[in-house]
TrEMBL record:
InterPro entries: PH-like_dom_sf, PH_domain, PI-Interact_SigTrans_Reg. Residues 118-130 have a biased composition (Basic and acidic residues). Residues 109-162 are annotated as: Disordered. It comes from Saprolegnia parasitica (strain CBS 223.65). Pfam families: PH. This is PH domain-containing protein. It comes from the Eukaryota. Residues 153-162 have a biased composition (Polar residues). Residues 3-103 form the PH domain.
Amino acid sequence: MSSYLKEGVLTKRSASAKLITNWRKRYFALTPTELLYFEKKDDAEPGRRTPLGPDASVSRTNDRGYKLCFVVKSTSTAEPFYIQAASEDELNEWVDAIGKVVGKIEDLAKDGGATEPEAAKVDEVGKEDVVDAETEGGGEVDAPTASGDATDGTPSMNEGSE
């Protein structure tokens, strides 16, 4: 069993997409202090680390009409991080899990505690507070159909590496 609070496949919006929005499937993992994504589950190094300090926020968004989307913002990173879930349940689970991590870090900061990774241990956040995507609600994101639209009616996602 991994030390991640939550993990699973989600679809992220490409940060380099300015004119054309590209969405790519990635393996995401939530730690007590960061949201990570990997191109593949078995990759040793994440493609991106998003710190979840007291300045971070997570919220649902319907940005550009994309369904089942949420955004993670942090002053530690230049760009907001747009992520799409495969279902309403999965969306709610991720937003809740990230929100709990951010809330715990905010509580530590208010109490004068450190917000460094070593200060926010997995047991402090509480794995029981976060649903594990491998046991409930996780899984693969539907691939786009031949017409270019995802099977649930969301805008198309382009496959490939970033």
